[in-house]
Amino acid sequence: MEFKLFLRDPAAYFWTLIFPVALVVIIGSVPSSREVSPELGARGIDYYTPIILVMSFALLALFITPTYLVGYREKGILRRLSITPVGPARVLLAQLAVQAVIAVVTTVLVLGTAAVAFDVKLPSNVLGFLLAFLLTVGMLLAIGLFMASVLKTTKAATSAGSALFFPLMFFAGIYVPKEMLPDALATIGDFTPLGAAVLAFNDAAATGMPSGITVIVLAAYAVVFGVGAARLFRWE
Fold first, then answer.
1. Residue 134 in contact with residue 212, Cβ under 8 Å?
2. Domain spans of the chain?
3. Range with the lowest mean pLDDT among 38-52, 84-98, 104-118, 209-223?
4. pLDDT tens across 34-60, in order?
């Protein structure tokens, strides 16, 4: 039922499934993006593919997760479910399961489109890529759950998602490539949630595995926000 409700929301699957693929096509269609950039040391499409992937996860976790769950609480759905055999906890798990599946589908679509249409190399080390994927999605969903725990209205959830998404995407390198930022800003970006996520995917592509410090950063965010969400989440 949660999956059906997701598919009935055009905005949800547009921004999490269609938009990332469209962005890959748009960027890849620019002739200069298929040539090696001296500043980036890589083709533009190769540089932006992992960023777009992380962006799709961020849209899912920072907007869909808190908006849906806060909306359920705001409308009294979680409270009413608490007196039924279903229980609100199962709804929460169902939401997370749906979003995890969407993240997997988006990954396949983005990487498949980039590889087939623009010859972007797929990750050679599946385990390294899988580690980066699990850490990134787990960390972002933990942040989304934490937002759903402390925010009271869907309007507040949407506003908070926007307030987090755009600055975090700056450090992920979507507006200005990190290679062109001052060293201090680039270093700070490596320790932000989305900056660390992009770095994990880049490390997995370059060396086969995310670096130890990146794994620690992503795991720390996941634990801190996950524990905070578990302690603060309210059903009513």
1. no
2. 2-232
3. 84-98
4. 999 888 888 999 999 999 999 999 999
Handedness of CA 3, 87, 74, 142 (dihedral sign): negative
Cα–Cα distance for residue pair 193/167, rounded to 1 Å? 11
Say if residues 226 and 145 touch (Cβ distance below 8 Å). Answer: yes
C-alpha to C-alpha distance for 95 and 107, rounded to whole angstroms: 18
CB half-sphere exposure, 95, CA atoms < 13 A: 23
Q: Residue 170: what residue type?
A: F
Pairwise pLDDT comparison (81 vs 2), residue with the higher score: 2
Helix axes 65-74, 154-172, angle to 10 degrees: 170
> 84: exposed, middle or buried (C-beta count within 10 Å: 0-12, 13-18, 19+)?
exposed
Would you give the distance in Å from CA 180 to the centre of its chain?
23
* Cβ 136 vs Cβ 62: under 8 Å: no
Q: How far is CA 187 from CA 76, 136, 172, 184, in A?
A: 44, 19, 11, 5
pLDDT digits (tens, 9 = 90+) for 112-133: 999 999 999 988 899 999 999 9
